[in-house]
Amino acid sequence: MQFQFDVAVIGSGPGGYVAAIRSAQLGFKTAIIEKYNTLGGTCLNVGCIPSKALLDSSEHYYNALHTFAEHGIKVKEVKVDFEQMIKRKSEVVKMTCDGVQFLMNKNKISVFNGIGSFVDKNTLKITKADGSAEQITAKNIIIATGSKPATLPGVQIDKKRIITSTEALSLEKLPKSMIVIGAGVIGAELGSVYARLGTKITMIEYASSMIPTMDGTMGKELFKATKKLGIDFHFNHKVTSVENTGKEVIVKADNAKGESQEFRAEYCLISIGRKPYTEGLALENAGLKTDERGRIEVDEHLETKVKGIYAIGDVVRGAMLAHKAEEEGIFVAETIAGQKPHINYLLIPNVVYTWPEVAGVGYTEEELKQKGIPYKVGQFPYRALGRARASMDIDGLVKVLAHKDTDEILGMHIIGARAADMIAVGVTAMEFRASAEDIARQSHAHPTYMEAVKEACLAASENRPLHI
After folding, report:
1. Does the pLDDT of residue 2 top 70, yes or no?
2. What is the DSSP string of 253-295?
3. What is residue 5's three-state secondary structure?
4. Residues annotated as binding site?
5. Residues that are catalytic
6. Average pLDDT in the 327-335 region?
7. Would you say domain 356-462 falls under CATH 1.20.20.10?
8. CATH of span 162-272
9. What is the pLDDT of residues 15-48, one digit of tens each?
10. Range(s) for CATH 3.30.390.30 in the chain?
11. Could you say which architecture CATH assigns to the domain 5-148+275-345?
12. Which residues are annotated as a binding site for FAD?
């Protein structure tokens, strides 16, 4: 049988386009299929990149109102130009997506725009927007179609007033009020964006804390920091209905006592997570199906039960993170090439890009308790750092979890300025199975935020932090 490509990738998000690049680098003739006209998937177009652009813009505005004067910077009539803010976000997105197109050209990867679906296990049909179609064949196919926003049972997302993160990133006018259902990563990030810009935010969460999947200390600290923005929190609440009346949204929820409460706002953002996106793939034509959660089942090599078909990122088990998908894309490409790559899923960091930022890697304290692993804790607050006081970023702390007997670092969790960048040292330390003492004995530049990591390791290793 004559094959047109060695590798065909369905989906051009971080997992898909990285898989394509690595495949091309390894000498494979590679194709990538994307249903939309721009590359980059959810992350670049309506996820990671645009949300970060708005997070930064809102933080600048908030600081102009609340901290510039203390820095000795006087400004008059600070206003939000929301239209320009959205325009800048779109420009950042375009620049980033254009960069992916450049990389496709550089690596001689064939790009096909349209919906990719299986004809059989080696043949893909690409249906274009105008209805026309073409077919390609490939020895190996990588499914990287990502995910889409999840919703609540019985709740219809109309994309007008009942919206997802996609619509929240492109509103035409700044809302006066918004209900955010879900205080996880997406809800925390976008809720804080609009709260900083002056929108009255009401946050409803089923769990008892913010970011409930991360270390409990992080959720408590983020709550304290975020509450300063004037967000009205309602934890332990189960949403029962969401109704768009035309001019406002009415949300009904039961509290922990079973009492029904009613909330009203201009918009309601549904941010309860995401679910795998496999619509239109015609998986059955390749002999595949999804599990009860809509995921494609794969083995330890990320290969499906059909030889030569792989799946990565949000459509398979594990955390729905762009960098997790990237690692899996590289893993599959190198596996196809006969190499022996590895991924330590415990060491894939999780980040919340609020301000202060939150980042964690390894085990949480709750997980260590559940597993019965003996551990010790070292913490160091940002407010004890000279660098944090200089920048007025004193909210937050570094928390290090080390094995009680061996001192090996088992987890690192940071909330504070630049936590997203700082967590890399935790990944490195744990990859090389370093002890808390190993980090504590390294010289850290002064004054920096990273000194908090050294101090937390001192606290975990020998209970002797120097500056508290």
Report:
1. no
2. EE-TTS-EEEEEESEEEE-S-EEE--TT--GGGGT--B-TTSP
3. strand
4. 52, 116, 145-147, 182-189, 205, 273, 314, 320-323
5. 446
6. 98
7. no
8. 3.50.50.60
9. 999 999 999 999 999 999 999 999 999 999 999 9
10. 356-462
11. 3-Layer(bba) Sandwich (3.50)
12. 52, 116, 145-147, 314, 320-323
